[in-house]
Amino acid sequence: xxxxxxxxxxAHPHVLVxxxxxxxxxxxxxxxxxxxxxxxLSLTVVVTPANLPNLDSLLHRSTAEALSVQPLVLPFPTxxxxxxxxxNAQHLAFPYYPHLIQALSALWEPIELWFRxxxxxxxxxxxxxxxxxxQHLARSLGIRRIAFYxxxxxxxxxxxSVWTHLPQRPxxxxxxxxxxxxxxxxxxxxxxxxxxxxxxxxxxQISEPVSEFLHDSFVANESSWGSVINSFRGLExxxxxxxxxxxxxxxxxxxxxxxxxxxxxxGGKSSVAPERVLEWLDSKPDRSVxxxxxxxxxxxxxxxxxxxxxxxxxxxxxxxxxxxxxTTQARPEEYGQVPAGLEERVQExxxxxxxxxxxxxxxxxxxxxxFLTHCGWNSTLEGLASGVPLLAxxxxxxxxxxxxxxxxxxxxxxxxxxxxxxxxDPAALAQAVVKLVRGPNKERARAAEMKMRAxxxxxxxxxSLADVEMLVKELRSLCSPGTADEQQGWx
Length: 491
What we know:
- With 491 residues, the protein is α/β, with parallel strands linked by helices.
- The chain folds into two domains: 14-258 and 460-486, Rossmann fold (3-Layer(aba) Sandwich); 269-453, Glycogen Phosphorylase B (Rossmann fold).
- Helix content is 39%, strand content 14%.
- The protein has helices at 23-37, 56-64, 97-104, 108-117, 133-141, 153-165, 199-202, 209-221, 233-243, 274-282, 302-315, 342-346, 359-363, 377-386, 399-409, 426-437, 442-458, 463-477; strands at residues 14-18, 42-47, 69-73, 124-128, 144-149, 180-182, 191-193, 226-229, 250-252, 289-293, 318-323, 350-354, 368-373, 390-392, 413-415.
- Strand 13 (368-373), helix 14 and strand 14 form a beta-alpha-beta unit.
- The longest helix has 17 residues, at 442-458.
- Mean pLDDT is 89; it is low at 1-7 and 483-491.
């Protein structure tokens, strides 16, 4: 298909960025946007009004550094399958995620109208892997689409496998969450329990409209012109090689972590002044504090909060606990409540922060000795890049595979609990915290090694920096004369 517009200048190729409106997805794609902008690309980021504040940090940095980054604010599509007032995944229970993914595909028409009216339209789309529909949009516009994966290469391989082969449990074991599924077309042929497959896949039902939309979207990801993955070769070379087989374009650009001075607004606004948190950390000895945070989605029940608080208190270890309050729960009073009297009993030994805090600044602080995490990929990468041993409590999505990486493959941490409804044993939790923070352990040495590998990847001559430069080169090449005539046969 011919491009009806002249290509943009090769000096400043224009790229359209389409995130998925969940914190864990947006943060790393906006980090990539900044990296591309610093290399002379012009970028437009699609955003709905409720998510525009998530761009504040990026837009302020871009203005200060004279970079070309602009928002394209489009109305949130209405959908009868979504609760009223929901415009992002931060305040949405998981059963609605597939409906949100489908609802966002209604942005196709306003994006196309904007594209055809633009004097210098994009030569490519970079979009989240939850927006597989943009592959079809890109083809209709005669431009290239690159899939962005905010997760690790093994998880990308697993996604490709399950959405291609659609494995299911046999009828006589349809309620067995431990039923094994072997991914024979993934390196190492890993076997996963049914419950450890991606949640968004496990809800698949043949001929059900939303399921079929998801199936088409995830399969479409594999037809993209290329894939960008927030990982690095020193961590996942076999899986990256697998994804790049037969000449497929795969750019591993992680870990994409900003400099210390650019961290404070990344991902949101702090509920407590970062200076207050850092002052508290400054008062603690080196490697003496366990940092506890479960990301932007998970909310613990009051029973989970009680047992976790009991374990932290009885450990005798200093702790910094980031608590997320209830949002979408049917009975919000049963979630997210700090155990009564805990703050008074621990006093200066524990600091509890309600809401968001600048995680990367915290993890890089000299006083952090361990990180209790839900094993989301952003948190896992940030922990690895900071050289901090990890206490793993996976709760869903890709977190089970990330916990396997942490505890079994890399040996940088240990499991302390598993599952979104699981309740930790306070004594076992306290023992694990003491071991990682105070005792001699191999996990700390392995974490230090992974930090070195991560730093090497993004340093001069590193694999991830080289892939960023190659990605920019490929995007510039799309502005060359004749490129529009080569849009057929991308795959």
